[in-house]
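STRUCTURE:
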C-alpha cells in the first residue's frame, strides 16, 4: 500500500493544529479559520473515521479578553490567559462541531500525564473510551497549571505521543507552512520535500530553531522531531498547511509525508523511549555499553562509573557511555543516594539487599545504536 493510500485509509487519525492557524494577536481566536478546519474534520468524522484533535491556541485565545497585547512574558499571566482562553477555545469548537452533529470532549494533559506510567495508561483508557462512544476528543496541554511545560511549540511533540497513546493509524501536523522545505522559502528558492523515509533524507536540510513571534513559538524543527517520533512508532505522518488538511486526509499529494520507519513498539517501550523525562544519568564503562547493546543485558553496578542527578527508585534515568552518547533509558531500582557505594563492584560483593540489577533489561529501552559508518 502506498503512503498516500495509508493516509486516506486511516481509520483513526490524530490531527494537530497550531496557534498560528487559529488565532491572531489583534483579535485572538479567529472563528472563521477554526470553523473551516472543523468543516473538514466534521466531514471526515461523518465518513466513519475517528479523529483526535490536538489543538493549540488556549493562551492566544485568552489574550484579547484580558486586554493583554503580545505573548505573555511571565508565567502567571500565561496561566491566566490559558484559563480564560481554554474555555473560549473549546466552547467555540463545541459549537462548530455541533453543526456537524459531532460531540466533542476535552482532554487536558500535562507532561506528568505522559511521563508517569500510571497516568499514561489512564490517558490511553480515556481516549479509547471517548472514541468508542463516538466522541471527538480535543486534546491540549494543560497550560493553566503547567510550569516549564508552557511552550507554544510543545503540542507538536504532544501530538506524536498522543498518536501512539490513541493507537492512531495516521498523524497530520498542520501549520501555516505547506510542508518541509530544503531551505527557508522566505529567504530564497527552496524545494518542498515530498517524502521522508529515513532521517538521513533530512541530513542536508536546515530547519532552524523554534520561532518565537506572534502567537506561537513552534517551528518546522519541532514538527520534524514530532514526525520522526511518530514514524519510528509505526505511525505515518503528513506535515502540511491547515488549508490543505482535506487534501492531506484524502491522500492527495500535498505536504511532506513521513513513512513508517519501524514497527509499532509495545506501549512500555514507547513510553520509556519517548514519553519519559529522565530524572538523572548513570555513566557506564565501555564493557557495560557493549553488554547492553550486543547482549541485551541488564545493568549491574560493576559497569557504572558515575551517577548524576537526584532521583528515586523507579524513576527514569539515562544510561550514558564514556563518549557522552545516551545508550538507553530505563527505570532505576535504587535512589541516587544509594548508588555511590555500589559503583564498580561485583554483585557477589554486595549485601543481599543490593544484589539485584541497577536497571533490569525489562525496564530498559535502547535509544541509539552505534554508527554504521
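SEQUENCE:
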Amino acid at each position: 500500500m502506498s503512503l498516500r493510500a495509508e493516509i486516506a485509509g486511516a481509520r483513526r487519525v490524530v490531527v494537530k493544529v497550531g496557534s498560528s492557524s487559529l488565532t491572531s494577536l489583534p483579535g485572538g481566536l479567529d472563528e472563521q479559520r477554526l470553523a473551516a478546519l472543523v468543516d473538514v474534520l466534521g466531514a471526515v468524522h461523518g465518513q466513519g473515521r475517528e479523529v483526535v484533535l490536538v489543538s493549540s491556541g488556549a493562551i492566544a485565545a485568552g489574550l484579547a479578553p484580558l486586554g493583554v497585547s503580545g505573548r505573555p512574558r511571565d508565567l502567571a499571566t500565561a496561566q491566566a490567559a490559558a484559563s480564560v482562553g481554554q474555555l473560549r477555545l473549546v466552547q467555540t469548537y463545541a459549537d462548530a462541531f455541533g453543526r456537524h452533529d459531532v460531540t466533542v470532549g476535552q482532554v487536558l494533559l500535562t507532561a506528568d500525564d505522559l511521563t508517569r506510567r500510571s497516568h499514561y495508561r489512564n490517558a490511553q483508557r480515556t481516549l479509547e473510551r471517548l472514541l468508542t462512544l463516538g466522541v471527538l476528543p480535543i486534546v491540549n496541554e494543560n497550560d493553566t497549571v503547567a510550569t516549564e511545560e508552557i511552550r507554544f511549540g510543545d503540542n507538536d511533540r504532544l501530538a506524536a505521543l498522543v498518536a501512539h497513546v490513541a493507537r492512531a493509524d495516521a498523524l497530520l501536523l498542520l501549520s501555516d507552512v505547506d510542508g518541509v522545505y530544503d531551505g527557508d522559502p522566505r529567504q530564497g528558492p527552496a524545494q518542498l520535500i515530498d517524502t521522508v523515509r529515513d532521517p538521513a533524507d533530512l541530513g542536508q536540510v536546515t530547519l532552524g530553531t523554534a520561532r518565537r513571534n506572534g502567537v506561537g513559538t513552534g517551528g518546522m524543527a519541532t514538527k520534524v522531531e514530532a514526525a520522526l517520533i511518530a514514524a519510528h512508532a509505526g505511525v505515518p505522518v503528513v506535515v502540511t498547511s491547515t488549508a490543505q488538511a482535506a487534501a492531506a486526509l484524502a491522500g492527495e499529494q500535498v505536504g511532506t509525508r513521513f513513512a513508517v520507519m519501524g514497527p509499532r513498539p509495545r506501549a512500555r517501550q514507547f513510553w520509556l523511549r519517548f514519553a519519559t523525562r529522565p530524572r538523572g544519568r548513570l555513566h557506564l564503562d565501555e564493557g557495560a555499553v557493549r553488554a547492553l547493546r550486543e547482549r541485551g543485558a541488564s545493568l549491574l553496578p560493576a559497569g557504572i562509573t558515575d551517577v548524576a542527578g537526584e532521583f528515586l527508585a523507579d524513576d527514569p534515568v539515562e544510561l550514558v557511555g564514556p563518549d557522552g552518547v545516551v545508550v538507553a533509558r530505563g527505570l532505576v531500582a535504587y535512589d541516587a543516594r544509594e548508588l555511590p557505594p555500589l559503583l564498580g563492584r561485583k554483585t557477589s560483593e554486595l549485601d543481599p539487599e543490593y544484589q539485584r540489577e541497577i536497571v533490569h533489561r525489562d525496564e530498559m529501552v535502547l535509544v541509539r545504536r552505534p554508527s554504521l559508518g
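REMARK: The domain at 278-366 is CATH 2.30.130.10 (Archaeosine Trna-guanine Transglycosylase; Chain: A, domain 4).
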